[in-house]
Amino acid sequence: MTSINEYNIVLCGVGGQGTILASKILAKTAIRKSINCRVGETHGMSQRGGSVVSHFRMGQEVHGAITPLVHGQVMLAFEPVESLRYVSFMKKNGTVVLNTHPIVPTSVNAGLATYPSTNDVKATLEKYPLKVIGFDATKIASELGSVIALNMVILGASARLEGFPFQANEMIKSIEELVKPQFLDLNVKAFNAGYEKATSY
Amino acid sequence: MLIDNKPGQLELLMGNQAVVRGALEAGIDVAATYPGTPASEIGDTFASIAKKVGIYFEYATNEKVAFETALSASWSGLRTLVSMKHVGLNVAADALMSITYGGTDGGMVLVMGDDPSCFSSQNEQDSRNYARFAQIPCMEPSNPQETKDMVKYAFDLSEQFRLPVMIRETTRIAHGSGNVEYGELPPRNRKGEFKRDKVRKAVLPAHAYQLHPDLLKRINDLAQYIENSPWNRTNLKGKIGIIANGNSMNYVKEALKYEGILDQVSLLHLGITYPLPAKLIEDFLRHCDTVLVAEELDSITEEYVKNMAYDLKLSCKIHGKDLLPKTYEFDTGILHRAITQMMKLNPKENFEVDFKVPSEMLPPRYPVLCPGCPHRASFYAIKKAFPKAVYTSDIGCYTLGIQPPLNAVDTCVCMGASISMGVAFSKFLSEKVVATIGDSTFFHTGIPALANASYNGSKATIVVMDNSITAMTGQQPCPSCGVSSLGEPCTAVLPEKVAEALNIPFVRVVDPLDLKNTISVMKEAAQIDDTSLIVTRSICCMIDKVKRPVVEVVQDKCIGCQICTKTFGCPPLIWDAEKKKVHVDETLCNGCGVCIQICPSKAIQGKES
Known about the structure:
The complex is a heterodimer. By secondary structure, chain A is an alpha/beta fold. Chain A has helices at 19-32, 80-85, 106-109, 118-127, 137-144, 150-158, 168-178, 181-199; strands spanning 7-14, 37-40, 51-58, 72-77, 90-99, 131-135. Chain A has one domain (7-199): Pyruvate-ferredoxin oxidoreductase, PFOR, domain III (Pyruvate-ferredoxin Oxidoreductase, domain 3). In chain A, strand 4 (72-77), helix 2 and strand 5 (90-99) form a beta-alpha-beta unit. Chain A is globular and about 50 Å long. In chain B, helix 10 (246-259) packs across helix 13 (332-342). Chain B has a 7-stranded mixed sheet with strand order 3-2-4-5-7-6-12, sandwiched between helices. In chain B, strands 16-15-17-18-20-19 form a 6-stranded parallel sheet, with helices on both faces. Chain B has a 5-stranded mixed sheet with strand order 9-11-10-13-14, sandwiched between helices. By secondary structure, chain B is of the alpha/beta class. Helix content of chain B is 37%, strand content 18%. Classes of the chains: A alpha/beta, B alpha/beta. Chains A and B meet through helix 1, strand 2, helix 2, helix 3 and helix 4 of A and strand 1, strand 8, helix 10, helix 13 and strand 22 of B. Strand 2 (37-40) of chain A pairs antiparallel with strand 8 (176-181) of chain B, so a sheet runs across the interface.
């Protein structure tokens, strides 16, 4: 096993957005590099449009599958409000890649709660404090052909972060291994689009 | 690939996949399950490889049937694994409690998916109690590699002591992934062979009386044997020690690492938690002056350790649930707090969050029925036809009918209870009672309750929401879906035929996506002073391959009544509070068209592509 410092990535969003595949791509990349890693996932009931969080952790002394509170370096937030729900996993001054496209919960539509503005979400994250790289990743994926590729856009953006443990080409190799051939082209395009988008930050 | 025979290969496996790999490396012949989170992926993985590797696999109708299928495999001299979620063993316990006396033949492994923190469960019961109750060994892996290796070992242990071996996973182990190094896959050539032994295999009172001492002898022998097992290991350092099992040890090690005291504290890692290794624990207690027993949920090990310290008059101070919670799963911060408190340290590392997100910025996001889910239409119709009923429900996706705006579930207890309790309520209450149950749950434990309704009488309306799949756990096939456990076409077993055979006087089948007819049939049932059963049949929208046009809301026609968002609540229907109109998130809509039937101003329509 390769010796490496601990690195924790928190992936959160709404069931069905593809956080699990994204965390598997990170893990596959780590394993190819012989780095010890763990992935903790959400399955079952909460998959049905509920709030979900996955964890990717790597490093020699990483044992558990869940990031200890206030120990996450990077958050990949697939949905704005969900970034706030799991913010306590984050280290101060960590980085959030934030998809600014909301999925409004039924509680809001039924008039039982309100949904905050994107600016308020960003401001709250910045107050934590966290560095926020926010853009509409759903729109990018949708324009490329399918919102399903949202997870690749976010992953692509993460590869651009300073100090991120993996290079873009290493992650693309994992995408090739894990994504079905008929969706590969779309997924790689989405990854590259996310990478380009984050370049401008 | 999970079935590659490449010893030394490193793969990313989820705990549940590692279970299957371990079973393959042990040369498994037969696997059975009833799906249940967090154990579901064990069955799903077996289903995906069974044909290729030539093993028998089935999704049984319930956990008891799955357990008895595995037991028959064992008594055929075959190696077998049965998996279920923790509460599944409540259903299978009848078989488990009885067969330990006579014991197993071919290696039999029972994998339990426990769920501390109730992520997907109705309780947090700790399966270790069942291991102690039934007198079978319990092993608890702490990562995917150990999971694979323990399962393989468990088959040998089972055959040596003629007992089923429990592997207890918790949600974090079952759904945690990590590196796993493959071992060898053995050649497979076992044939089923039944060895007649009436004393062991027919648990008549006289036989059971004779065999109980034999069970105790086997578990005591096993306790001696596992004293030197590599799964229980001590690392003796300072006078302060921690005893932990499974995943708890991960948190212990991380808490010690962060605090920089990993080399000061003695550790006893328990991989086998029933029976406990007496000598190893005694030596550990004699080495330490203060010990923390760290175990999620029940204080089973702690009580054992305290009893031992009392019996041996040891002066070691023993902590456990005085410093750690008895409910919910642990995390590193919880262990860090308990350890630093026990050691009276001024903590260097911080796990406390000093930032609070204002609650108005966190709208709740309950799990809800999927966009286009036929259950939503069934519930909507129920509320129209039975506006003031008592609604009993059951375990499955349709439990989500409890959420606003449907509010169509009053009770949910355990598999099958919707019918038995609905039937009973209908005799105790003046209101109408509507029981909702899915097709898979109907076959699981609903049928005996329906027979009871027919025999003892009832006035309840039972709605079998038949989406032809076990949906909540990941779309596994079940008797009503016309597809076998391995995906081959087969004859579907229909709930309405069962109801007719049980003499239920009013039985109807409707398509819930046709709201008008569904409501009308339900209103008819509401008039009947006897048991009625309505099957609302529409395929689960997650497996429905038909592409339908999404809907749109014609803004000029929308009168802002919010009937669609406040009584139906399909997620793509978005209320715009400023414009006072509803619009559709097309990325979510699956085009079921039910909302078109609800809108009083005909503002919702299919969108022309």
